[in-house]
Amino acid sequence: MTFRSSASAAHASRRAGVETEVSLAAAWWMAIRPATLTAAFVPVLVGSAVAYKEGGFRVWPALAALIGACLIQIGTNLANDLFDFQKGADTEERLGPTRVVQAGILSQDAVKRAMIFVFALSVLVGLYLVWVGGAPVVWIGVLSILSGLAYTGGPFPLGYNGLGDLFVFVFFGLVAVCGTAYVQLGSVPLLSILAAVPVGALATAILVVNNVRDRETDVLVGKRTLVVKLGRMAGVLEYALMIGISYAIPLLLLGAGHVTAAILLPLITLPWALWMLRALVRLRGTRLNPVLVSTAKLLLVFGVLFALGIFF
């Protein structure tokens, strides 16, 4: 079973008299957007490093937290694909990666069913974590799923009303890191809160690049991100702030005596981060796509080095 790979590819292929198609597996791979799963993996890695540092690392709760986080991320990606299309935000003028519903690759019903299925799987994983961590985990899971749906869905979508940045910082930083530490330790140590800040900040930086790139098209479809409300330069300054916070936290942790000098490992990526900031200032449109990808990679590399720094 095959589908057209994208609207633009289909247009190009029609002009050439050839139909471009992708497999069903490739279509779903495109829909779940595996590159975004770094934002689910890194918080669990950092939260688990905190649990180890505090003497309470537990492999099964850590693994369940990772699976649950990935499922919620995938469910949110599917929800965004579906709801952005329904709200008219995804058009053929889209500057980012192909969205499967807008491109006609997968039907709305298929993506909706997949979204419900994936969130249901996350609930099943969550039942184990509730057994391990008790009632607080119920609230973490429920709020995470509802926020994933509300990011682009519902009567007041967060991403359309300037709240997307706050959502990402809270749920991909504070909630994910502290929640991972909690299901292993049964408590939320100060180290987990501090360690969550750079994780949430770099995850937010990914969104900022997306919003700076899409500012002009977002205006046309009524999507009121912070960059739309405050202007492009505000987005650049927000990105710089997220970078600055991220690299300040390891220094703060070292100065406070919470960790060893290994916590400074992430600082070797600072030139890379500054290069991306400079690119964000200079580039426009689709030329920012590599900056978006690089920021996601920065989150992964920084997160791994940060976790190692906490571990040692």
Structure description:
The protein is mostly helical. The chain has helices at residues 7-16, 24-32, 38-53, 59-86, 108-133, 135-150, 164-185, 190-213, 215-221, 226-230, 232-255, 270-282, 289-311, and strands at residues 2-4, 21-23. The relative contact order is 0.13. The termini are far apart. It is built from 13 helices and two strands. It has a two-stranded antiparallel ribbon with strand order 1-2.
- How would you sum up the global shape? globular
Biggest β-sheet description:
2 strands, antiparallel
Instruction: Report the count of strand segments.
Output: 2
Query: What is the CA–CA distance across the termini?
Result: 50 Å
The level of helicity is: over 70%
Radius of gyration: 20 Å
* Proportion in β-strands: under 5%
Mean pLDDT: 90
Secondary structure category: mainly alpha
* Oligomeric organization of the protein chains: single chain
Low-confidence residue ranges: 1-19
Instruction: Report the total helices.
Output: 13
Question: Strands across the major sheet, in which order?
Answer: 1-2
